[in-house]
Amino acid sequence: xxxxxxxxxxxxxxxxxxxxxxxxxxxxxxxxxxxxxxxxxxxxxxxxxxxxxxxxxxxxxxxxxxxxxxxxxxxxxxxxxxxxxxxxxxxxxxxxxxxxxxxxxxxxxxxxxxxxxxxxxxxxxxxxxxxxxxxxxxxxxxxxxxxxxxxxxxxxxxxxxxxxxxxxxxxxxxxxxxxxxxxxxxxxxxxxxxxxxxxxxxxxxxxxxxxxxxxxxxxxxxxxxxxxxxxxxxxxxxxxxxxxxxxxxxxxxxxxxxxxxxxxxxxxxxxxxxxxxxxxxxxxxxxxxxxxxxxxxxxxxxxxxxxxxxxxxxxxxxxxxxxxxxxxxxxxxxxxxxxxxxxxxxxxxxxxxxxxxxxxxxxxxxxxxxxxxxxxxxxxxxxxxxxxxxxxxxxxxxxxxxxxxxxxxxxxxxxxxxxxxxxxxxxxxxxxxxxxxxxxxxxxxxxxxxxxxxxxxxxxxxxxxxxxxxxxxxxxxxxxxxxxxxxxxxxxxxxxxxxxxxxxxxxxxxxxxxxxxxxxxxxxxxxxxxxxxxxxxxxxxxxxxxxxxxxxxxxxxxxxxxxxxxxxxxxxxxxxxxxxxxxxxxxxxxxxxxxxxxxxxxxxxxxxxxxxxxxxxxxxxxxxxxxxxxxxxxxxxxxxxxxxxxxxxxxxxxxxxxxxxxxxxxxxxxxxxxxxxxxxxxxxxxxxxxxxxxxxxxxxxxxxxxxxxxxxxxxxxxxxxxxxxxxxxxxxxxxxxxxxxxxxxxxxxxxxxxxxxxxxxx
Length: 762
Description:
By secondary structure, the protein is an all-alpha fold. The protein has a domain at about 730-760. Helices cover about 70% and strands about 0% of the residues. The protein has helices at about 5-10, 15-30, 30-60, 105-130, 150-170, 175-190, 210-240, 245-250, 250-260, 265-280, 290-295, 300-310, 310-320, 320-330, 335-355, 360-380, 385-420, 435, 440-455, 460-475, 480-510, 515-520, 525-540, 560-570, 570-580, 595-615, 630-635, 635-640, 645-720, 725-750, 755-760, and strands spanning about 80-85, 95-105. A two-stranded antiparallel sheet has the order 1-2. Helix 13 (about 310-320) packs parallel to helix 16.
């Protein structure tokens, strides 16, 4: 396939879903069947194009001699195409801001994952949203067992969501990436608040929920805070490098020049500004609070946000700019900031998930925790491990969310059967015994849960977590950097808790006997929903096998870490040059074998699963039985169940003061008191001036006019007295006037004035 053809196909990857969005909005919004058919066509077309590009690049590398993995790095392959978009700078030199697409090994892997996950979610959505809208259905409220209102609207927004993520992935510059980034922000806002009319009437003991419309605003505003800071970083990026193109700006020569111009420390500031966007998008502390509430959207939306798009975009961004990050890590404290935020987020979210009862809420905090693993890996320089975990996490987390949606779907059918609309179908305390009611959902959920837990040697999650542990141990054991051991210990604790709360979730949901009539009458979901579960469960296992370490168990040449060598080739050359320039501390290479990371991975995974089974699985919960963790944890359980009181803290420290400041200081004092006071004062002054002018006009001009009028009237009255009406008096007066004129003329002639007067007229 020619390079020109590959470039054209790359441009078309996001075009299909974006076009479908407009087609549904403009033409098919009243035809529900045609809407989802168009949506399917758009994402399947994007999958075909994405896999064509991805497998072309996979094949290029596989055609090399894989017995020597380093040879895979000798002939890097990249598909790139750009167009002039806007004229900038010096018009005489014809300088343009360019927009373009680029596919390298990292992009190829992302295209493979994103397109597959999106297609599975779209197939699942047709079964999740059923048919036959009943009379009296209220728009903006869920109606499971019947058709969801705004069916076409859902697939239009999901298509736009998918198109934006694909646009972000293939972008070759920060501006185009930011456009896709912001479109996803709009889509997440619209889809989280999809059931905008939904309200909750909570009873004591119910899981706290906020209405979807509030959750949507919370997500939008929280991520916008981060996006503003990120935009400042993008502006600084352009100011420093003179371009937004990744390959141009992040070359070794460009980074060396920037380091000399502004200093390595300022490059660290730039990296942290851009990283703030990841903190918001990927829900890292302290901007993590929006993601759990995002579960108020439909389950396919949750799967898209947590696996295929949105949060994955944040990690992808910092992996994409890793050459800049690597220089910042080496020459500033950026690594401590990034790794510290990631490790703390991973451990904190894992502790919260232990005490949650919402089946989707547990997975939400699991996502926050696993993203913390990736961010921490970036902070210690392990960008390949972060990218690897990003891919494996997408598969098993999409599987888990779709399976949890299947569970909720089954529980809601049970609620319809027994006419119980007060019991929360997402509360795991009301489930139990679903293993026999929903066997396909159970086994696929089990596979996804074990992959999340890192079940050794079998699941994808084990291999990607193990690589992160290996990198953290290397940073400590080889480099002597204390950051490595801190990250290692914190992530190990988080991994243990992950295995524990996952086993707890599986036990409370599927094992034992049904604890409510809803669970008793639940049944397996339809084929549209179970088929994606089966497909994703396969990838939740085998996706990790491409990342088995080269020297696993101390062997040489037995295994080939294809993922490491393939994705490492993305930036192998600039990192090698930066190493020669002493701007980074390591090249991209195979880590020396150590038993410590492997043993740690095995122990924390199996230990967490074992403890979870002993507490929840060996004797499953019975109806009305208290959670076994409540008594031993005491007040700590309430602390964890209330999510470390982060929402309450933000309410007290940020939201309420801001609201108070807005309502009292801004509105009452500044707006009504100062601004309105000044406006009213100006109005009074102008009114007073007007009244003074009126008084002056009345006193001065009015009286003068009246005097002139009076004098004129008086004169006319005097003149009128001369008008007696007698002819003889008029003749007398006329004769006297004529005599006077004759006398004057004779006088002028006698004294020679007549000639002078004639000369004047001439």
